[in-house]
Amino acid sequence: MTPRYLTNSFAVTSQLSVEDIAEAGRQGFRGIICARPDAEETGQPTAAALELAAVEAGLTFEMIPVRTGTLPESTDIDRARVTLKGVDGPVLGYCRSGNRAGQLWALAMADSLAADQILAAGRQAGLDFSPLTTHQQHASATRAPAAGSSMRRFDVVVIGGGAGGLAAASGMLRRRPRTSVAVVEPSEEHFYQPGWTLVGGGIFRSAQTRRAEASVMPKDADWVKARVERVFPDDRQVLLSDGTTLFYEILIVAAGITLNWAGIDGLSETLGRNGVTSNYRYDLAPYTWELVQSMKGGNAIFTQPPMPIKCAGAPQKAMYLACDAWRRKGILNQINVEFDNAGGVLFGVPEFVPALMEYVRTYGIGLEFSSRLTAVNGTRKVATFERKTEAGIEQVERPFDMLHVVPPQIAPSFIRESGLSDDSGFVAVDPGTLRHKSYPTIFAIGDSAGTGNAKTAAAVRKQAPVVALNAIAALDGKPPVATYDGYGGCPLTVENGKIVLAEFGYGGKLLPTLPKWLLDGTHPSRLAWYLKKDVMPLLYWEMLKGREVMVQPTKISRG
Q1: Do 132 and 57 reside in the same domain of the chain?
Q2: Which of 37, 38, 98, 524 is the most exposed, having the fewest neighbouring CB atoms within 10 Å of its CB?
């Protein structure tokens, strides 16, 4: 990587590699602009892989692809301008040669630098910007009306059309039907992700967990099919990937969590083949069950990355269901099962550990704590772990016939880049009211929220009415009226037909829904299995409609 500086705050370079991203950070760059479309040539790193590397390095990453032989569109220029002005430090732009990244900068700076300054900056970096003169004039002449035509105003903007976003939007509209609500969601499909464990265990079909996004979108909400680029909380604005700006009175961040597949070397290249799978992806969960069925002996390794992750029990669930299937076939004693957990305990709430440990012993599972998966070689079928020992950190290679991977997980980058995050990168909210600590018109729900609860769909069910009630109060200029106790539910599928139903809140406090005489969540139960398999999916789809069953929030008393 050889940056060519146009100014002290911007440089261009040719195609970056994943390793170059960290080097860019060491050289002082704080942001990356990708001006190159994916798949222009064989072996080109994807923008997604580079973005994840940038997030890990603490850098802003913006993809503004410009096809070779063309000039940027006005919306691309606007996005580049927002990025250049929003990043606190030098920005590095790249494409195949650096030329398109330089042109993007030149056009974005046309409203703040004179033409001769832009031309001189280009010459300094070996770039000729003189052909851009006509394009700059046209862009300047058309920018104002284009901006005016792409602005929309709403009472409430919800970022994310997953469980949290739809439940909160529906809850608000049910209580106040005339509220104008926009749900920003680029995907055409909606997934019941808690069901993927059962797909990987051969209990559900994958199609049972997927519906069209249009079928679950609240009918009175405006569905905005775009990706969020940045939030400007001081101006109450949301900039979208298509150049549209949304103005809001109340903002609800429900953007989920990002699965960092590129955070493990070699993983992306071998997922879905060579015995490497994950129940954390819709298209891979069936492959998990395929591998379980085909195993006759050898090494089966299951991994768990550092926290936070969505559904912290899911890495174990895949393992227990696989072991149960092998036990039923009478081949469990021919398979070496290993659980590599980057953390230091089997489960974070001690009351549920004894029941889980009984299954660990029954299935003959080898436990490795403080063991983080760092690389996968699918061809050799070798997994590399970084393990903490009394002697220090050591690298351990483990051969496998089946490898179930849970990727490291991080907050969506726009949260940090927009100044909404806490030190963890997630939205800095009050853990009770779920309102932002600095911006009283912003709330967060689900995996995006910087709270200490388990990141599960069950937590969203409890959070949704709290956010809906408090957001309505904020619309009326009133303080929050409801509080969330940190409830999260984790149905730990220890075998086909039995579940340890872990329900707990902040500080690990046990918060069972049913009385202990009916269901003791600290022990495996067939009733809990019935709830997981048959009842919870129904509750999930009803939750998206704003129907709040057994989730009445605690009201805040103002004495």
Answers
A1: yes
A2: 38
CA of 324: how far to CAs of 88, 495, 553, in Å? 52, 6, 38
One domain for residues 464 and 439: yes
Local confidence pLDDT in tens for the 559 residues of the chain: 899 999 999 999 999 999 999 999 999 999 999 999 998 888 899 999 999 999 889 999 999 999 877 778 878 888 898 889 888 899 999 999 999 999 999 999 987 888 888 999 999 899 888 777 544 544 443 333 333 437 899 999 999 999 999 999 999 999 999 999 999 999 999 999 999 999 999 999 999 999 999 999 999 999 999 999 999 999 899 999 888 899 999 999 999 999 999 899 999 999 999 999 999 999 999 999 999 999 999 999 999 999 999 988 999 999 999 999 999 999 999 999 999 999 999 999 999 999 999 999 999 999 999 999 999 999 999 999 999 988 889 999 999 999 999 999 999 999 998 999 999 999 999 999 999 999 999 999 999 999 999 999 999 999 999 999 999 999 999 999 999 999 999 999 999 999 999 999 999 999 999 999 999 999 999 999 999 999 999 999 999 999 998 888 899 987 6
Same domain, 118 and 176: no
CATH code of the domain containing 137: 3.90.190.10
Q: Which domain holds residue 366?
A: 262-408
Paired residues of 336 in beta bridges: 299
CB neighbour list of residue 122: distance below 8 Å, 6 or more residues apart: 6, 102, 106, 128, 129
Nearest to 503 by CA among 532, 544, 530: 532
Q: Which of 408, 426, 452 is the last residue of a domain?
A: 408
Q: Is the peptide bond before 308 cis (omega within 30 degrees of 0)?
A: yes
β-bridge mates for residue 341, sequence order:
304, 369
- Whether 34 is catalytic is no
367 and 428 in a common domain: no
> Looking at the structure, do residues 426 and 456 belong to the same domain, yes or no?
yes
Same domain, 64 and 168: no
Q: Which of 34, 95, 323, 490 is catalytic?
A: 490
Is residue 493 included in any domain, yes or no? no
Collapsed DSSP state (helix, strand, coil) of residue 8: coil
R_g over Cα of the chain: 25
Catalytic member of 34, 95, 311, 323: 311
User: Does 503 reside within a domain?
Assistant: no
Task: Answer yes or no: 323 catalytic.
Answer: no
The total domain count for the chain is 3
Task: Please say which residue of 148, 175, 201 terminates a domain.
Answer: 148
Does any domain span residue 363? yes
Beta strands in 288-444 (DSSP E): 298-304, 335-341, 366-369, 371-377, 382-389, 392-399, 402-404, 409-410, 442-444
Q: How far apart are CA 152 and CA 183, in angstroms?
A: 13
